[in-house]
Amino acid sequence: MTDKQVLYTGKTHTTGGRQGASRSSDGNLDIQLSPPGGNGTGTNPEQLFAAGWSACFIGAMGKAAGGLKVKLPADLAVDAEVDLVLQEGQYVLQARLDVSLPGLDRETARAVVDTAHQTCPYSKLTRGNIHVELNLA
């Protein structure tokens, strides 16, 4: 048996699927949903996943940098792309994280990114489940 402590639970209520709406229990998230490439004005699950993953990945890079005794640049960024793919009649996701760590040498930046990818909860969630590319911009 492992020791486990729930640190936070995100709660949303969604209606209407890809043409609906989603609202968090605290009201901080209140959005309209639209299918990818559709005419709607809302966002879609792929965009939401990309936003969540990139934010989480930046946090994981902070922890990685601390462990590696590296100071991250203030203007670091992660551009996340999440593709909805039809493959052999099945819908799947694939993703790319393009990481910008200006001022860090390539070897150090790669160490930060690779370490973050091992610890980021979103990266753990996707590992072995979808194709993921990690790129240094």
Describe this structure in words.
With 137 residues, the chain is α+β, with helices and mostly antiparallel strands. The chain folds into two domains: 1-43, N-terminal domain of TfIIb (Single Sheet), CATH 2.20.25.10; 45-136, 2-Layer Sandwich (GMP Synthetase, Chain A, domain 3), CATH 3.30.300.20. The protein contains three helices and six strands; from the N terminus they run βββαββααβ. The protein has helices at 45-68, 106-119, 121-126; strands at 12-15, 21-24, 30-32, 77-87, 90-100, 131-136. The strands form two sheets. It has a three-stranded antiparallel β-sheet with strand order 1-2-3, with no helix packed on it. The longest helix is centred in the middle third of the chain and has 24 residues, at 45-68. The chain is globular and about 45 Å long. The mean pLDDT is 96.
Order of helices and strands: EEEHEEHHE
Distance between the termini: 42 Å
Gross CATH architecture of the largest domain: 2-Layer Sandwich
Arithmetic mean of pLDDT: 96
Report the radius of gyration as a whole number of Å: 17 Å
Write down how many β-strands occur, each being a DSSP E stretch of 2 or more residues: 6
Helix content: 25-40%
Q: What is the third-level CATH name, the topology of the largest domain?
A: GMP Synthetase, Chain A, domain 3
CATH homologous superfamily placement of the largest domain: K homology (KH) domain
Tell the overall outline.
Answer: globular
For the largest beta sheet, what order do the strands appear in spatially?
1-2-3
SS-derived structural category: alpha+beta
The largest sheet is: 3 strands, antiparallel
